[in-house]
Design brief:
It is a single chain. By secondary structure, the chain is mainly alpha-helical. Helices cover 59% and strands 3% of the residues. The protein contains 14 helices and two strands. A two-stranded antiparallel ribbon has the order 1-2. Helix 2 crosses helix 5, helix 4 packs across helix 5 and helix 7 runs antiparallel to helix 9.
């Protein structure tokens, strides 16, 4: 029998049998190791497969409470719980009875931008639900383009193989056939390149870059449907849509000091007035920070 630690066996299973991405394997392995470390202290003894079969909902609530103390948000807590369930199923077998525990929920209120943590968790949750590795890579690449490069979903769907090979920037055709150049973060570029590597339909210059399961152009409705399912899993608000990722891209850049004119160019807005709405969104975010942090707020 393999004498490797259970988290490493779990990671090998995800990579070999489930063909998960390197990022997902690393994240799930880390969660498995954290859970075992926590339970070892929580129970005061070694944790093996037999012990994991006895994990209760109360144990998991205690673990998630500790993770919240560590500073993770609701989306990350929900994703952590998903990873924990996958690990317990691996340790106990597919027929293992898992503790019943609802994930965290986000209270409803005034719409706010999706946080970086939530945006990445959303993209990864959508990818993890895909039935094929290449489809998982596709969904991750599309959503990271929306959040990491500020693309509209239609702009991402309009990309063709002519965009390859990727460089540090990407030429995008937006509304009224207006083109613009957007920078590509290394993580976004790597996600698109991984999709291209796995896609079974090729990337001819005149063909759609993002393909559906049968090889035709990817339908934006499929992306929206996958995002709706993932946001429920993560407890994110209803306003968490593919377009909300683009809004969050803009708001986070503005919050980090981006110039409105530069932001207008990155978003492909014909008028500066369209870009100025983000000053109001950012002011609302700052008001939240003030109310939560100021002793007299």
């Amino acid at each position: 029998m393999d004498d490797k630690p259970l988290p490493l066996l779990f990671g090998a299973h995800l990579a070999r049998d489930r063909r998960r991405s390197v990022h997902t394997v690393r994240a799930y392995e880390a969660t498995a190791a954290r859970l075992i470390s926590f339970l070892s202290g929580h129970w005061g003894g070694a944790v093996d497969r037999a012990a994991l079969a006895k994990v209760s909902a109360a144990d998991l609530r205690a673990y998630l409470a500790q993770r919240r103390i560590d500073g993770i948000g609701n989306a990350s807590a929900a994703r952590e719980l998903s990873a924990v369930r996958a690990f317990l199923r691996f340790a106990g077998g597919e027929d293992a009875e898992l503790p019943r525990l609802r994930g965290p929920r986000v209270r409803k209120g005034v719409p706010r931008p999706v946080s970086p943590d939530e945006a990445v968790a959303l993209a990864e949750e959508v990818a993890d639900e895909a039935r094929e590795p290449w489809i998982a890579a596709r969904d991750l690449a599309v959503l990271l383009l929306l959040y990491g490069a500020g693309l509209r979903i239609g702009e991402a769907m309009a990309l063709t193989g002519a965009a390859l090979p990727l460089s540090e920037t990407l030429r995008v055709t937006g509304k009224r056939d207006k083109t613009r150049i957007v920078p590509l973060l290394p993580q976004v570029r790597a996600a698109v390149e991984e999709y291209v590597r796995l896609c079974p339909y090729g990337t001819a210059p005149g063909a759609p870059l993002f393909r559906g399961a049968r090889g035709g152009p990817l339908d934006p409705a499929l992306v929206r449907r996958a995002v709706r399912k993932a946001r429920v899993q993560l407890g994110l608000p209803e306003r968490t849509t593919p377009h909300a990722l683009r809004h969050s891209f803009a708001t986070h850049l503005l919050g980090r000091g981006a110039d409105l004119r530069a932001l207008q160019e990155l978003l492909g807005h014909a008028s500066l007035s369209s870009t100025q709405i983000y000053t109001a969104v950012d002011a609302a975010h700052l008001l939240d920070v003030y109310r939560n942090a100021h002793p007299r707020a």
